[in-house]
Each structure stands twice: as structure tokens, then as C-alpha cells.
């Protein structure tokens, strides 16, 4: 039985466990007499369902984590001695050929008899493993179901057990998220430290030239590489700044109109239409910027006597700002609607007009949420890649002129990691240093936003 089929059967068994546990509590029959149970029937059903699901699911996860290594060891142990003596890299290629042969994929050359025999052994072990797992999961699920069902008594506090279990699961989920973040940071940090062993952090942070081409051979000249991040960071801030100049005013004013002035019919039409912008793929925005906005800006600049590059920070920033408008407007609209109506009524009672109430009461009260929306939009702008590639180019120019071509940190990360790379060269490791720089930048933005939120939240709560 396949993994998906096992999970479907386990889900059905869990539903059956919930039904049986709840039915036992609803009937209230213990020892032939009807008794009142401590908790609601749903808690007893949930208790039996959790005991049926969690142990079996844990066994399923452990089995799938250990199965590949076990099967690999058994299959390689059956190979001839001369094959087992191969280096680990070549042995891995042999094992890949065995797996490809079993799965019906293309193998490298004509498989030998030993490879064919190992493939048959692999398939047999896989079938045995699937069958054993199916039986083990079903037996464990049924055993746990029966044990939990027998524990149901009138004085059994099922609600406490279920809530404590769910609390533990939620805590585990949050712990996984925290450790995932820590793992991402450490993986970037360690590779960035390897980069800084080859390139000075001072040259990286304050260098004014970015040319990551490095020599592959010892006798190669002219490709020593310069890794000054200032042009990339300047381009990132320039494009993000233009995008925010478009997105924040338009998005905030749209949110104010929808929440304070628009009627229900207009709001029901305008809000979903505005949020459609968030669902358009970024590559479509890139095409729009490269084929429509870029030529229009160049023609408009020529009419004014200005030289506008075919790939400019202005074009990329304008289109990126349009893309980010829903992030600001939707979040700001929700936050403004969440402001208590009593604040508005108090302002009207003191004689303030509608616009004065919005400026002096509603917006200050909603400022923490608006700042959160703007911060999300800034992070989205800093992390955007496709629009910049298609509309702003790859040239690392140190300029603040929005009419010229620039590039961003994220675009260079993609460029550095495209194709075959050596992860001991400064060129490849520079991508991790750039990632660490972005991480620190967004962390600083979060800290600043947190200070703003705390300051005004204390004032208006």
C-alpha cells in the first residue's frame, strides 16, 4: 500500500475512533447503567481519535525517515565486492542506476546482471517495507484506539487531556518554526563566514565596485573579483524606495476610502478587484515593465530632453509599487475597520468633521497595524527579483539616478547561484553573504517597526 493510501486509511480509522468515543459518552452506559460524564462527548471522541492518530502517525514518520538508509544498506550489501569497493561518489551513481531501473527511468548505459539483480532486490525490499508499514500502522492504531476507548469512564477528565495534548502540539509547531528560522540563519551564517575568510568584511560592506568574476585556474588573470556591496544595496534601496512611494500613498488612501467613504456595493466590488493585483505572477509584472512601462518612460523622457535607459530603476520601481499596493491597502483596510466605533463617535460628539476624525483619531489608532502592513510591503519589495531582472537589468551601477539601470541584492544572489558552481569559491559564497545582509536589514526594519507599534499601542489601548 502506498504512503498516501496508508494516510487515507489512517484518517478513516481516526474518524471511526472519534465516532466510537463520542458515542460511548453520549449513551453514557457504563456497567449497564446510564451515568453522567465529566466532559462533553466531543472531548471523549477527540481523546480516542488523538490516541489512534498520533502514535500511528509518529511510527509512519519514523519509518519513512529510516527506510531509505536501511534499504540502501541492504541493496549495496548484495553487490559484488569490486562494486562495493568503489569510492562513495561512484557507489552513489550505481545506487541511482538501481533506483532508476526500478522506477522505469533512464539509466547510464546498459545495466549489468548485478545491477538488475540489485534492482529486483530493491523492489522486493520496498514491497516488504510497504506491507510491514501498513500492518504496523493499522495494528498500532487499532491497539491505541481500543486502549483509549477502554479508559472512557464518567470520572475521566477527557477535556483536560485533549486540551493539554493540543497545547503540546501547538507548542511543538511553534518550536519547529523557531528552529527552522535558526537553521536558516545558521546555514547562511556559516557559508558567509567562509566568504569573509577570503574577502575582507570592510571591502564587502564599503566597497564601491561589484564584479564577482573570480579566477578558476591559478594561471588565469583579469578575474580577481571585487565584492563591494554598496552598488547592490544602493540599487535595492532605490527601487524599493520608488515602489514604496507608489504603494504606500495609493494603498493607504484606497484603504481609507474603502473603509470610511465607500458604500457597501462599491466596497464589495472594489476590494476584491484591488486584491487581484496580489495574485498576478511577478513574471507578468516583469513583462509589463519591460514591454510597456520601459518604452513609455523612454519616450516620455525623450520628449523632455532626458536620457532614460531602456532598463531603469524608475520603471522597475513603478511596476513593483503597483504590485505591492494590495499588501498595503488590504492590511490597512482591515486595521482601520478594527478601530472601535466608540472612538469615532466620541470625535463626532466633540464636533470634529469626518476628515478630522480620520486624520486625528482613526489613523493614529490604526497606526501599529498600518506600520505592519508597510513593513510587509517593504520586505516584499526588497525580496523581489523577477521584475528587477526584466525591467532594471543586471548592471551593478553605483547611482541614485532612477533613469539609469541598476540591480539589487536578490538579483545578484540568483545570478551567482545559476549553473554549475564551486562552493569553495568567493563568487559562490558571496551569495550567502548577500543573504546574510538581507537578513540583517529586514531584522533592523522589524525592530524599528516594533518600537513604533509599542509606542502607539500604549497610547491608544
Write the layout of secondary structure elements.
Blueprint: H1 3-27, E1 29-30, E2 33-34, H2 41-77, H3 81-84, H4 88-103, H5 113-150, H6 158-198, H7 201-206, E3 210-211, E4 226-227, H8 230-261, H9 264-275, H10 282-303, H11 313-337, H12 341-349, H13 354-383, H14 386-391, H15 409-416, H16 426-460
Antiparallel strand pairs: 1-2, 3-4
Please describe the structure with a list of short key phrases separated by commas or semicolons.
461 residues, two-stranded antiparallel sheet, two-stranded antiparallel ribbon, MetI-like fold, 2 domains
Task: Provide structural commentary.
The chain has 461 residues and is mainly alpha-helical. It has 2 domains: 3-156, no CATH class; 226-460, MetI-like fold. 75% of the residues lie in helices and 2% in strands. The protein contains 16 helices and 4 strands. It has helices at 3-27, 41-77, 81-84, 88-103, 113-150, 158-198, 201-206, 230-261, 264-275, 282-303, 313-337, 341-349, 354-383, 386-391, 409-416, 426-460, and strands at residues 29-30, 33-34, 210-211, 226-227. It has a two-stranded antiparallel sheet. Strands 3-4 form a two-stranded antiparallel sheet. A hairpin with a 2-residue loop joins strand 1 and strand 2. Helix 1 packs antiparallel against helix 2 (41-77) and helix 11 (313-337) crosses helix 13 (354-383). The chain is flat. The protein starts with a helix and ends with a helix.
Amino acid at each position: 500500500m502506498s504512503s498516501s493510501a496508508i494516510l487515507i486509511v489512517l484518517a478513516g480509522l481516526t474518524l471511526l475512533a472519534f465516532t466510537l468515543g463520542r458515542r460511548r459518552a453520549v449513551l453514557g452506559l457504563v456497567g449497564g447503567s446510564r451515568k453522567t460524564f465529566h466532559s462533553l462527548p466531543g472531548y471523549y471522541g477527540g481523546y480516542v481519535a488523538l490516541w489512534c492518530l498520533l502514535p500511528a502517525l509518529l511510527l509512519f514518520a519514523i519509518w519513512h525517515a529510516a527506510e531509505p538508509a536501511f534499504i540502501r544498506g541492504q541493496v549495496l550489501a548484495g553487490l559484488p565486492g569490486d562494486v562495493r569497493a568503489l569510492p562513495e561518489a561512484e557507489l552513489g551513481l550505481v545506487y541511482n542506476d538501481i533506483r532508476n531501473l526500478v522506477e522505469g527511468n533512464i539509466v547510464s548505459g546498459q545495466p549489468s546482471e548485478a545491477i538488475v539483480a540489485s534492482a529486483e532486490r530493491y523492489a522486493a525490499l520496498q514491497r516488504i517495507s510497504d506491507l510491514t508499514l501498513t500492518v504496523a500502522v493499522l495494528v498500532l492504531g487499532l491497539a491505541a484506539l481500543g486502549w483509549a476507548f477502554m479508559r472512557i469512564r464518567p470520572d475521566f477528565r477527557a477535556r483536560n487531556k485533549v486540551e493539554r495534548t493540543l497545547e503540546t502540539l501547538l507548542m511543538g509547531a511553534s518550536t519547529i518554526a523557531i528552529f527552522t528560522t535558526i537553521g536558516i540563519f545558521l546555514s547562511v551564517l556559516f557559508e558567509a563566514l567562509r566568504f569573509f575568510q577570503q574577502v575582507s568584511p570592510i571591502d564587502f560592506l564599503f566597497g564601491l565596485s561589484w564584479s564577482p568574476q573570480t579566477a578558476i585556474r591559478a594561471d588565469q588573470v583579469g578575474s580577481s573579483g571585487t565584492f563591494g556591496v554598496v552598488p547592490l544595496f544602493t540599487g535595492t534601496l532605490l527601487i524599493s524606495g520608488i515602489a514604496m512611494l507608489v504603494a504606500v500613498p495609493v494603498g493607504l488612501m484606497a484603504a481609507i476610502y474603502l473603509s470610511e467613504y465607500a458604500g457597501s456595493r462599491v466596497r464589495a466590488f472594489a476590494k476584491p478587484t484591488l486584491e487581484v493585483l496580489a495574485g498576478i505572477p511577478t513574471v507578468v509584472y516583469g513583462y509589463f515593465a519591460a514591454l510597456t512601462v520601459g518604452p513609455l518612460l523612454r519616450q516620455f523622457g525623450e520628449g523632455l530632453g532626458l536620457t532614460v535607459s531602456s532598463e531603469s530603476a524608475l520603471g522597475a520601481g513603478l511596476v513593483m509599487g503597483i504590485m505591492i499596493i494590495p499588501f498595503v491597502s488590504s492590511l490597512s483596510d482591515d486595521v482601520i475597520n478594527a478601530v472601535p466605533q466608540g472612538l469615532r463617535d466620541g470625535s463626532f460628539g466633540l464636533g470634529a468633521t469626518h476628515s478630522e476624525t480620520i486624520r486625528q483619531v482613526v489613523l493614529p489608532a490604526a497606526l501599529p497595524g498600518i506600520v505592519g502592513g508597510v513593513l510587509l510591503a517593504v520586505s516584499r519589495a526588497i525580496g523581489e527579483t523577477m521584475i528587477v531582472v526584466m525591467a532594471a537589468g543586471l548592471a551593478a551601477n553605483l547611482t541614485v539616478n532612477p533613469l539609469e539601470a541598476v540591480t539589487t541584492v536578490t538579483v545578484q544572489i540568483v545570478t551567482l547561484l545559476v549553473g554549475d558552481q564551486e562552493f569553495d569559491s568567493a563568487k559562490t559564497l558571496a551569495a550567502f553573504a548577500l543573504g546574510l545582509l538581507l537578513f540583517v536589514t529586514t531584522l533592523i526594519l522589524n525592530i524599528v517597526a516594533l518600537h513604533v507599534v509599542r509606542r502607539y499601542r500604549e497610547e491608544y489601548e
